[in-house]
Write a structure and sequence with these properties.
mainly beta, 8% helix, 7-stranded mixed sheet, 3-stranded antiparallel sheet
């Protein structure tokens, strides 16, 4: 399998994923909107398949999850919660990714300034069918 790579804007933090990536899911929860300025589009990989080079700053955003960003340029890179996977903000991946957006979660929290007009699945809250990575 080919490695997938990515980085922050200034390249002070780079990463490589040696295993499969989950399709991209858009999260519209308030925390994702606040941290990104809109919604977050993220993939995920098994934690042991991700190698991170550089210093990531971690912010404990809830009792069960933390968010990783570059302390130099501020790029949001990761969401690290319970389970075996690390979520990776899809916009930080180097192209081509070969990934596709497959759905939306936490649509009940979405901003009032936009509509979701695609035909992809939309969940009011978390949806394990979309977010759980198949081994």
């Amino acid at each position: 399998m080919t490695e997938t790579t990515g980085s922050c804007l200034c390249r002070a933090v780079t990463y490589a994923v040696s295993g499969p990536l989950r399709p991209v899911v858009a999260c519209h929860c308030q925390q994702c909107r606040k941290t990104s300025g809109h919604h977050v589009a993220a993939t995920s990989a098994h934690r042991e398949d991700v190698r991170i080079d550089g210093q990531v700053q971690w912010y404990q955003s809830s009792e069960t999850a933390r968010r990783g960003f570059c302390p130099t340029c501020g790029s949001n890179l990761f969401w690290d919660g319970p389970g075996a996977n690390l979520s990776i903000f899809a916009g930080t991946l180097d192209a081509p990714t070969g990934l596709k957006l497959v759905g939306h979660i936490y649509c009940a929290d979405k901003g009032d300034y936009y509509e979701l007009t695609d035909d992809l699945p939309k969940a009011a809250v978390r949806n394990p069918e979309l977010t759980t990575m198949v081994p």
